[in-house]
Amino acid sequence: MTRIGIVVGSTRPGRRGRAVAEWVASVAAQEQPEADFEIVDLADFALPLLDEEQPALFGRYGNAHTVRFAEAVSRYDGFVFVTPEYNHSIPGALKNALDFVYAEWNNKAAGFVGYGLHGATRAVEHLRLILAELRVATVRTQVALSLHHDFTFSAPTEPGAFTPGAHQHQTLSTLLADVVVWSRALQPVREGALA
């Protein structure tokens, strides 16, 4: 069965990413039953700032936290990255996690669910460039959730409950189907890289 990790890209207290990832997992369970989707919350790994002596490209990980994270990433055939936009880019925690390992990301597919004032479109643009260097194939369709339209506000400046618009469901459905198809298509490439 194709395994897809739903990566929660923010570790900030009060983040909205976990609720968004749970929505992604819920829609995936209904619409992609032939694939196994699991939430991969970066907060659960508590990765420090990159502290490996050798570049990840060499695959010689010296720290237990890196080995644990590498094992988790390697289990998946593809990913859906759930990311907010911080200062026109991705959160530092997500960039740090991407830099920790290398081969474990290679030859897999990825899609994006961004959330922010402008749907995290600029963060996703940066993430696409980073993933290209990690040899990850990204799908075209992306979900851009607006803090103004897809979250209710509990105070004037504080987004509350996550309430995605109905149109977001169809976009997410297309994204999930694309990630599953591309993850399967890249399986021979992954197997060839391991041979």
UniProtKB/TrEMBL annotation:
Organism: Nonomuraea rhodomycinica
GO cellular component terms listed in the entry, alphabetical order: cytosol
PANTHER family in the record: CHROMATE REDUCTASE, NAD(P)H-DEPENDENT FMN REDUCTASE LOT6
UniProt protein name: NAD(P)H-dependent oxidoreductase
InterPro entries referenced in this protein's UniProt entry, alphabetically: Flavoprotein-like_sf (IPR029039), FMN_Rdtase-like_dom (IPR005025), NAD(P)H-dep_reductase (IPR050712)
Domain named NADPH-dependent FMN reductase-like: residues: 3-148
GO terms assigned for molecular function: FMN binding; oxidoreductase activity
Pfam families reported in the protein's UniProt record: FMN_red
